[in-house]
Amino acid sequence: MKSILVMATLILSSTVFAATRYDNLLATMNTLKSANPERVEIFSIGKNNSGMDIQALRISSHAKESDPSKIGMLAVGVHHGNEGGAVPIIMEFAKKVLAEFDADPEKAENYEFVFVPVINIPGYNSNSRTENGVDPNRDYPGPCKGTAANYRLKSTKAVADLFNSRTFAAAVTIHGYIGSITYPWGVGTRDPRTKDHSYFQEITSKLAQVTGYKYGTSTDVVYPCEGAFEDWAYWAHGAWALLFEIRNDSTSDRDKNVLALDRFFFDVKQSPSLDFSFENGCDARFLSLDRHDE
Fold first, then answer.
1. 51-101 confidence digits (pLDDT tens)
2. Which residues of the chain have pLDDT under 50?
3. Residues 39, 108: contact at Cβ < 8 Å?
């Protein structure tokens, strides 16, 4: 009888304390920090609705504290928990940035990268799209949505607070699985072109040569929606914001995306857009095209 109770206790303990996908990611992040203690810092951008800290990596010449004088770059992943392919891409790109800093000390002195591999921790752990029944990538303000009824999730509000903590010249959000690189606008409008349309087209066409992906505005290439991160980052802050819809979780596709991210962040303009206002007019009828599956 005693042996049965001991075995039951062990089984229960292994179930209760089994590492989650996010725990495994945190272990990988800590390994990267241990190998690069000066250049890598792990910090929380805030807690989600479940009380869990949303952890981020800061990579800089002296990463302990943020340095707003450096050129800020941001990459975020896993708004949708069933799109976990963003995590290995971000982590591999973090390693590449560190290698770039080793090879070029000027880059290390001039740039500060922040990576948030997972926004939606509960969804990532359960491989489900939403967080507490809310789609995080419909939870941001936007030019057609306005500022009302947003930030139902503490996770998306934490991202907004991170953006308010320093200037980010450019930002990328990684989703799946379409095989495209897109840019604002992605809202319901008859004319999705921003005032920076030509520049966005120029930079994404170069990235598409690396990945073999389609490129264009999010409305044209994916479909229109309201409350997406990349539209908000450009609309609210002028950041050169892109949406990477990766093709699949293969190593080959991962490596192409890492190279594309490297080209984007080190070639893009080093300060945000100066004229990012939305003047195109909204048309709610386009929202019927939102498939809610990207």
1. 999 999 999 999 999 999 999 999 999 999 999 999 999 999 999 999 999
2. 5-6, 8-15
3. yes
Is 200:184 a contact under the CB 8 Å cutoff?
A: yes
pLDDT in tens, 213-237: 999 999 999 999 999 999 999 999 9
Chain-centre distance for alpha carbon 175: 8
- Rounded Cα gap, residues 263 and 279, in angstroms: 30
For residue 87, give both structure tokens: 């995590």
Helix (H) or strand (E) holding 26: helix 21-35
What is the C-alpha separation between 125 and 52, in angstroms, rounded?
A: 12
Strand order in the sheet with 53-59: 40-47, 53-59, 111-116, 71-77, 170-176, 240-246, 180-183, 214-217
